[in-house]
Design a protein that fits this description.
The chain is about 30% helix and about 25% strand.
Amino acid sequence: MVSAKEYLNSKHKEIIDLETMLTSHIAIAPEGEGDGESEKVNALEKWLKEKGFTDIERYEAPDSRVSSGSRPSLVATIAGKDDSSRIWVIAHTDVVPVGDLKLWNSDPWKVIEKDGKLYGRGVEDDQQGLCSGVFAALYYLENKITPAHTIKLLFAADEENGSEYGVIWLLHQKKLFRKEDFILIPDGGDSEGRTIEVAEKNILWLQVKVLGKQTHGSMPDSGANACLAACDLSLRLHNLEKVFDKKDNLFSPNYSTFQPTKRAKNVDSINIIPGEDNLCFDCRILPCYSLDQVLAQIDKVCHEVEKEYGVKISYETPQKSESPATPVSAPVAQKLAAALKAAHGIDAEFIGIGGGTVGAELRREGFDAVVWSTLDNMCHQPNEYCVIDNLIKDAITLIEFFK
């Protein structure tokens, strides 16, 4: 029988073709002014059927903001000898916008192969994980090998904007998972493929509105400068890193972060003191602190700024997530560590991350999940790339993991 490495090396062109096809179908959420994942998922479903996948289920989360009216997720299944504990590989089909197009060296929606890398939006995040899972499953399908456990490939929608129309919707509307299942998410890792993520920082996004009173730039006493208040508020919120100051070396960085990010346009002229200012924060908080604790401190800071500057402050939390860790001793963590050792001689290292994955949503519902891949971590960057050898290496690991 052909080895996993020989099989995957023979699929080199097909891997590139799949990456190319997926990238050409833009799958951006409405939050990024896109039309969702339907076009991409339709193409993927057609491709899977042509490759011999016969058990494919489609789940449509209603979303009136997109032209199709829904956000589709797919589950492709290969029946195994044991169906009591299935093996899931969960990859997401949506991608983020390209950002500043001038920073790209090529068209983000057309894959370029150069020096063993594939360049294009989504090729690493998360099409590398998607493709590695697909081709590992195809190894069993095309070689007519019945895996030890039933294999479930989940291609989920809406991961980049909080999974409300993806994994969260599936968890609440469909009973797909069992507590005995092995759940792997190939959506984070390191360049050696050594680290297995078992925990995530709590995530808190803030959209803050500061309302003051607009006035002429030469007469600040006749108004209430929303921009000035917002600047002070931004620094005070950032300084919450000194309040929630515990360290945990499971994570890198090992502390809670409160970072200002997006800032909206306010006025059109330099000589106008704005009466409204809008700013955003991305906070990644160690699990030892609850989000209720953090929000109470944020409210206190907002009230202090309101009093000092004579403004009104309100905020929304477009993403708010906290979850327990997967124990290192959990069967899925140990099974993946054993697969890495058997396939590549790698001794796994268990870590926590500041980024957010669907792992948090699963853990919150009581399902043990791990996040792993071999990545250069080019996600969301201009000139995003996937190392082809990393994709093949990950597929070899998954073939071992499926045993």
